[in-house]
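User: Okay, second chain of the day. Same drill as before: sequence in, structure tokens out.
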Amino acid sequence: MINERFLALPQERQRRLINAGYKVFGLNEYKKASTEEIAREAGISKGYLFYYFRNKKALYFYLYECATKLARTQVMDEGFARLTDPFEMMAYAAEQKARLMADYPYLMEFAIRAYASQHEDVSPALDRRIIRETQKIYAGVLAGLDYSRFRPGIDPIYILRMLQWMGDGWLREAQRIGAAPTADEMLAEFRRMLGTLRSLCYKEEEDERD
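Assistant: Same drill. Structure tokens below.
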């Protein structure tokens, strides 16, 4: 449980602690992530860290909830809501995430490790949250998109899920070999994936006029 006094801190001090958590949890497995290192990165004592958060697990889940909230408010904004083309929507979301990383440099590392976590103390509860959040997104956002340009026989939802899996797999491979990509590199690679799938899935212009 979060101590309400943490939420009363100035935004910059909150962000410093959040970024410290993303960095340490993002670069280490949960069990090896040091709360002492998080406190040092945040510029506070370990005692104050546990004054704000009951324990390590409470901090971790707060960081996860913060990440999902940032995605909803700063990625899925009014501009996002106006889009009806599935591939344009995915491209817009990727660009917004790249901007988000300017304020939270280790957010992506944290998210990748959270989604890939296995046999960790936090894994079962985290898996349930990820499944719940994913179902909510697909039920809400994707239902309002225009799928009329897809070729007959192609399942648009499956293609968008495939794109997500491809992106996750590419990021995990980069993480595994210790070559964490920059935001610009990730955006360029994702655009390349989008372009390839779009050309394979969309009808030719002549077909659309028939």
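The chain has a mean pLDDT of 82.

User: Thanks, on to the next one.
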